[in-house]
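Consortium newsletter contribution from the modelling node. Members have asked for a concrete example of what our holo predictions look like. Here is one, prepared for the HDE complex that several groups have been discussing at recent meetings.
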Amino acid sequence: MAQSKQDAQRKSKATEVALAKQKQLESFSQGPENLLTTNQGVVIPDNHNSLKAGVRGPTLLEDFILREKITHFDHERIPERVVHARGAGAHGYFELTKSMGEYTRADFLQEVGTRTPVFTRFSTVVGSRGSSDTVRDVRGFAVKFYTREGNYDLVGNNIPVFFVQDAMKFPDLVHALKPEPQHEMPQAASAHDTFWDFASLMPETTHMLMWVMSDRAIPRSFRMMEGFGVHTFRLVNAKGVSHFVKFHWKPKLGKHGLVWDEAQKIAGKDPDFHRRDLWECIDQGNFPEWELGLQLIPEDKAESLGFDFLDPTKLIPEEMVPVLTVGRLVLNRNPDNFFSETEQVAFHPGHVVPGIDFSNDPLLQGRLFSYTDTQLSRLGGPNFHEIPINRGVCPFHNFQRDGMHRMLVNKGQVSYEPNSLASGAEFRVDGGQQGFQSFTEAIEPPKIRRRSPSFDDHFSQASFFWNSQSPAEKEHIIAAFQFELSKVQVPAVRQRVVDNLAHVDSKLARKVAESLGIAAPDAKAAAGRAGFREKRSKLPIEASPALSMDVNGHGIATRKVAVLVANGVEIGALRVIQQALQEAGASSRIVAAHLGFVATSSGQQLAVDHTLENMPSVMFDAVLVPGGAASAQALTRNGDAVHFALEAYKHCKTICVIGEGVQLLRTLGIGAGEGGPAVPGVVIGKNDPPLRAQLAQEFIAAMARHRHWTRPNVEAVPA
Ligand code: HDE
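And here is the predicted structure:
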């Protein structure tokens, strides 16, 4: 009794001291506002000059202000992520729209309307932190849910399958993919010998290769790409019943890609293209949004899918197991500081909450070790969970102590369990219902280092993906293989790739081989090589429309239109179209040869937003060329303006020309005479006031198709 009284007194004294110290600290931090200080709080008298022996003399070591400033600067960089180094992040929330209580006990998936704060980071995989956004690559799509039961991380990609089946091959894959070690080239590109050498010797990569050669790997925006959890996970309900689950993020604006030529040009014109797009949209209140979809597979059905659901090179077609929409993700706040938040955020597929569990996918199992391990060297020690962006919103208690950069001030005598010295019942071990209960699964012996024969099917889903693409998408995939392999120096590597492709589709393999000047694809040769597996499973469907991006119906919200003008531009129709674009959620920018103003045909001043040079056509989704004889003439004499229009034509973007503006397309033979054949996505209008509103709607309808792949003579355009 006496002991506990003493304890209580000691505690209240300690609290008093802590409070006094806290007050003191607060009063200090309210100190000299807006004055530059050292990290110790000493006001800096002069931030331009170091302390010297005489104004022209040597600097003194004594200058603690200079020393502190330079020392901190010297240590500003931390190691970049070994993969996914370049990224952009945003805050937001996840709102549940359908209760998942039947399937999982996860608290944030119970009550419809529950909003859980999130931080999301998108990334490329291969490039360094300073590389370009629009390279051909997989995109990371990682979401940290700050739930009331702890942080849950869904660390996925924008492609639903992966290159390799077993974690053992991941370091080899990444070494082959990254710049070659002798000269560190090429940056952020798979188009080089080591990657294709590895890929050609590992037929299990084939399905993922098809995705990476498709337009999925050059997204128009982070806001317009899907996300996937990739692996099969488990949901476990309060009764301990488990369902397998695949996670999907479906973008509200639809899924859209760039054109490869465009992607490469943007990489030079604006390497921050995706990062800027995300930042600006959130800044302007155009909050990106995705639906969370789940494919739920009862335990007993999983084995009868016809392929192995534990194999991460396989997807489950939506037509076989429908995607159930359960909530929405909204990103509505940009980070305050890139380093503190986007760079220091630490995701981990092993950050799960009660009710979400793992499957035995051998790639996922390897990831469960890797992510904490990598943060130890990247974020400098075991206390990275204390960094604000990584901290949960629920309290956490344990007896882990000390280590580099410890922020918490753990109180008291006791840092172990069990103990009899800590008073109170805090940090009790919950052996009961509240805790994370791993799904009780019977594990089959023996301990064995071997791949399951059920993982032997390396080609059937690659063919399935190919069969699901539109004719234009197939052409893009062929062109991507041709480009990548044309960069490969060793002919035998190219040959192995096309031989493998013969097992996906013979036309695809033949067309790729033709442009490389190598022998015809030899399916038999591929089948005779090490690593090749004969197994082919049959899906109950031939193709999946959900795998194609060539679908419309998402409107034109947040699309950008360039308006090409020069002195003498006629703005009557322009104003009507601009208004209609704005109402449809798109924006327009005036682009001219110089900044400042141009004079309109009616003598007004029209403010210019960008020059033809600083915002070329690749930065826009569509082009509008208003009428006005003098403006049209000046534009046709300006090489940059002609290039602008031709390039937009080549990239299959919507172009609207009004009256004399049509002259800009004359080199394409468009609009030369009345009644010429209609060209997809080229809208030709007259300067006729009663027809302006209709013209605006025609333009918007054409833009909503995103790209016009069936447009003639695109290859002939020298842009
Ligand atoms: Fe990762 N991965 N990964 N990965 N991954 C990392 O973790 C790793 C894999 C993914 O925005 C690293 O914090 C292994 C698949 C994303 O911060 C590292 C294996 C998928 C991000 C790591 C995989 C991913 C990472 C690097 C195979 C899609 C960026 C820095 C066993 C489902 C997260 C870091 C962010 C990052 C390891 C395979 C997605 C080294 C060992 C499959 C989105 O720990």
